[in-house]
């Protein structure tokens, strides 16, 4: 019996390597900023802002993959979905760690008080918590084990997007332009899904009297 072994798809491996490089670039720039002491007067705030922004951007990018597949009529965006989601989790975890370790420091226990008393932290923490099961179940083994329920569980990413945007809107004191831009992108991505979902049954419904 001849066992056929598939040769590696080098083009795809190259594209994925570039995508990993791009996803790690903001982190590399942050590390460079820390080492070179170029993050400004408040480096902890700079790290919190960068990691928070990248976490949210990547959540939104992950949410864009399904609409992109549908609009382009090509399957490739879906092949990036897991990678993008895991990087969103990485940046969200670094963001949380920056707050707990670098910001609160020896008062790290105060995070519990903050989660209870400061609404924007409550909402941010809820978003991070929801990302945990998504990251854990992102492997092929979990996809197989959960079957149909995997897709249902991963709909939690919609809530992560909403909570992430709310967190940002809540913490901003005056200029709402940036969080509202994220809110607009999120509304577009969720709105497209809703539109397609509502249209499908109509298109498939049998004609009256037919
Ligand atoms: C336990 C979880 C979290 C904590 C404790 C936390 C805490 C914070 C803090 C202290 C800030 C800076 C506030 C300020 O400038 O006054 C911040 C900003 C931010 N966070 Fe979070 N956050 C959490 C989770 C998240 C998650 C999951 C996301 C995204 C999905 C996120 C996205 C952002 C964004 C976009 C900003 C604003 C960055 C900017 O100012 O440009 N955060 N967060």
The gyration radius over C-alpha positions equals 20 Å
- The dominant shape is globular
Strand content: under 5%
Main beta-sheet strand count, sense and barrel state:
none
N-to-C CA distance:
55 Å
Helix content: over 70%
- Secondary-structure-based class equals mainly alpha
Instruction: Indicate the low-confidence ranges by residue numbers.
Output: none
Total count of strands? 0
Query: What is bound: which ligands?
Result: protoporphyrin IX containing FE
**Averaged pLDDT, please?**
93
Number of domains: 1
**What is the number of helices?**
9
Order of helices and strands, N to C? HHHHHHHHH
What can you see in these coordinates?
It is built from 9 helices and no strands. It has one domain (22-191). 78% of the residues lie in helices and 0% in strands. The chain has helices spanning 10-36, 43-72, 81-104, 110-117, 119-136, 140-146, 148-153, 156-171, 177-204. Helix 2 (43-72) packs antiparallel against helix 3 (81-104), helix 2 (43-72) packs across helix 8 (156-171) and helix 2 (43-72) packs parallel to helix 9. The chain is mainly alpha-helical and 210 residues long. Protoporphyrin IX containing FE is lined by residues 48-49, 52-53, 55-56, 59, 92, 95-96, 99, 121, 124-125, 127-128, 164, 167-168, 171.
């Amino acid at each position: 019996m001849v066992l056929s072994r598939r040769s590696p798809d080098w083009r795809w491996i190259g594209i994925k390597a570039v995508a990993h490089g791009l996803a790690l670039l903001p982190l590399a720039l942050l590390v460079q900023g820390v080492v070179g002491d170029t993050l400004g007067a408040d480096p902890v705030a700079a790290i919190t802002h960068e990691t928070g922004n990248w976490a949210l951007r990547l959540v939104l990018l992950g949410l864009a993959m399904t609409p992109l597949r549908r609009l382009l009529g090509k399957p490739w965006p879906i092949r990036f979905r897991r990678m993008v989601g895991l990087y969103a989790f990485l940046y969200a975890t670094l963001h949380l760690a920056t707050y707990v370790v670098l910001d609160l420091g020896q008062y790290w226990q105060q995070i519990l008080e903050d989660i209870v008393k400061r609404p924007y932290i409550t909402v941010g923490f809820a978003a991070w918590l929801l990302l945990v099961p998504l990251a854990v179940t992102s492997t092929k083994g979990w996809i197989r084990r959960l079957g149909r329920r995997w897709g249902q569980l991963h709909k939690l990413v919609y809530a992560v997007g909403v909570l992430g945007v709310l967190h940002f809107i809540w913490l901003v004191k005056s200029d709402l332009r940036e969080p509202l831009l994220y809110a607009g992108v999120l509304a577009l991505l969720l709105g497209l899904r809703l539109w397609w979902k509502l249209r499908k049954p109509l298109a498939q419904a049998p004609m009256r009297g037919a």
